[in-house]
Amino acid sequence: MLRKLLAAVLVAAISGSEAEDESTALWQDTYKLGKRVEILTESMTSIVEDVNTAIASRREARAKLRETEEEELSTLKVDSRKKLKGLQKKVTSVVDKIRDLQKSKEKELNDLLKEKGCIRQQAAPTTNNEWVGEQQDSSKPSTPPPDPCEDSDDEYCQREEIKEAMRTSWSAYRKHAWGWDELMPVTKQGKNWAKGVTKSFGLTIHDSLTTLLIMGMQEEFEEALEWIESDFHPSEMDFTMSVFESIIRMVGGLISAYEFSGEKHPILLKKAKEVADIVLFAYNTSSGIPHASINYNQRSHGNPPWSGGSSVLSEFGTVQLEFRTMSFHTNNSIYDEKATWIMDVIEEKAPDDMLCPTYFSTTSFRWTSDHITLGALGDSFFEYLLKQYLLTGKTEERYKVMYEKAVGGIMKRLVQKANNKLAYVAEYKRGGLFHKMDHLACFSGGMLALGVQELERSDDVDGAKILKTAEEITETCYHMYHNTPTGVAPEIVEFHGGEMTIPGRRSSYYLLRPETVESFMYLWRITKKAKIPRLGMGSLQSPEALVQSRYGRLLRPAICFTCSTNAGQLTTVFLVGRDTQISLHFVF
Question: Does the annotation mark 471 as catalytic?
């Protein structure tokens, strides 16, 4: 029995030893397999890294090659443009020399024929300033044929006169100040808004883009487009610029030209976006109401001391058309959101009649003055209320409501009549009416007339009253021109004792404002009264004749340029498209 037990124990011991050996062998095999997998994984990882490195290297090489090609292409374009411009100048110079030679030979031939007693038919003209005369005695002075458009009310002649004024003004800017913000025709030099800088925004170019298209000046438009693409780089401008002017002149000018040209030139939208993205930094305030100015390079922004640190109603309330259109074309809502937030704030803080004061604090979230005006500091805010309603296809009713409230307040509180029946828009200041009207406020006639038409109020009593007031205000603006010896309007008039007067030399200057002409346009289209085009042409021809009589055709001011005078002597003129100005001192 004992033997059996010992035998069983011995067998069990032997079996356990064999199992343990098998387990050890299995563990060793597993360990070896794991090491092989580890080695294989490391190899695969190394291979993947090598592949990624090779791919990245190829991509970098391609990028450098693409960059090199783009730089070479850009350099080639610039060189080609320079060579083309140089060739154009050479061709122009050769043509001028040929014309001069032709004139000289013509003169020699005419002198010879005269000496021989011969009569010769007048030669065909060689320049636009010559004419084809009839066969005549060369010893008698010739007279040019009559101008069929002289003293004419013909619409074609009037259009051509305006187009010729634009062509002459643009030619002067192109010749003497190309790429600069403004032209000073007296000195025939360019001027930039920022003093002491060589880089320019080219504000005249931005301002004039759509005008060039409307006038059919396609070559000039293409040249302006080329300058914007190659020379306009807003982020490189290391100086401070008005946010308001940036939006209405550059963003507005670029995006309106983009639309008017059929969206064929994406560079216009691209450059408009560059400017808009920079000025967005000025909206980083606690209230969302933007500061007035911004440094384009450093992105710093603030308000000027003269406004007491507040923002100006006519500036922050006049960005909505441009910014909302930017959002439409870029499919980026940020511009619309910024602009619409401003209207939300205004709607919340405005008085019941929507006659908002001129200054608003970006920190205390309240109005900081009681000054109400349709002139400087307030004007375009009221203009944009109606136009925002129209921009949205008359779908956003709140802008219609805000506009109608404002018109009600204007008619009730600000519209006045002088003893001579001239209607004007007064201002409210320091608790009472101030019987002063800026030329800027002359936009109100057109605004009121457009509102009557677009809100379909021409048949009701209130609408008829508003339209009559619109005509009367615009007629007063005409008299601002007609009542001066020069025929051009002062910047400000006052009404004392019921008579219209100019308040001293501080207001007796002309800034070639567009507001009166704009009101003439709206009233003509809406009422079709025959006298309106005559009044409008008078407002154009008076400053043109005045400047031409002193300084010749180079200084034709119609459409687009500005000047200032001292005792009637022109001292400086700037070519600017939107708020073009001619400053003159008058004596009644």
Answer: no
